[in-house]
Amino acid sequence: MEPFISLKGIVAPLDLPDVDTDQIIPKQFLKRIERTGFGRFLFYDWRFVDGTALNPDFEMNQELYRGSTVLVTRANFGCGSSREHAPWALLDYGFKCVIAPSFADIFYNNCFKNGMLPVQLSEEQVEQIFRRVRRTPGYQLSVSLVTRQITSDDGLQFNFEVDEFRRYCLLNGLDDTGLTLQQEDKIRQFEARMLSG
Predict the structure, then answer these.
(1) 3-state class of 82 per DSSP?
(2) Looking at residue 41, what DSSP letter applies?
(3) What separation in angstroms does the CA of 174 have from each of 2, 70, 133, 179?
(4) Is 168 left (phi over 0), alpha (psi -120 to 50) or beta?
(5) SS3 (DSSP) at 59
(6) Domain boundaries, the chain
(7) CA 167, CA 112: separation in Å to the nearest integer?
(8) What's the CA gap between 61 and 49, in Å, rounded?
(9) H-state helical runs in 8-122
């Protein structure tokens, strides 16, 4: 897993509450066995008309949001089923950070396990970001996991909370497997003891 230390990127808005995982990545695309390739199906029912042409009415499809790495959205993002494919799709599309007033618990945990930073801010702070994104084409935010701050060139500065263990894992690029492998010497010693007697 790639470490997440800091990021500066274009912000894309998704001005909807209660976005569930079936909207993030619809069920018909869950047959893939790899973690890659899901980005093209992200928000499929909203991004496309009849599964082919980009929907011009879907705000994220606007050219000025192309290449976005930060998604700002509304409360209860990632609700619904517990599919880990949701953060896979967001990451594969290019998002490395999602900002919202609240997240569904399982989605929130899955983000950290896959190298993506979910940042919880107040409704008022999220609203400020939405206003700035709509006022400034190509609006960018800097997100630092080291300082736990979100900043912008136009003076915005928000602090955010993150569990220290999750922060450590993201900063060091450690998923569950990586954490286990940190104990590789102890695992080998245990196996040697078991084999010898």
Answers:
(1) coil
(2) G
(3) 8, 21, 32, 6
(4) alpha
(5) helix
(6) 6-196
(7) 9
(8) 12
(9) 21-24, 44-47, 85-93, 105-113
Please write the tens of the pLDDT for every residue from 89-119: 999 999 999 999 999 999 999 999 999 999 9
Sign of the C-alpha dihedral, residues 68, 138, 127, 151? positive
Indicate the burial class of 99 (C-beta count within 10 angstroms; 0-12, 13-18, 19 or more).
Answer: buried
What is the SS3 string spanning 159-192?
ECCCCHHHHHHHHHCCCHHHHHHCCHHHHHHHHH
Q: What is the pLDDT of residue 35?
A: 85
Class of domain 6-196: alpha beta
Contacts of 135 (CB under 8 A, 6+ apart): none
| Contact of 143 with 170, CB cutoff 8 Å | no
Burial (0-12, 13-18, 19+ Cβ within 10 Å), 79? buried
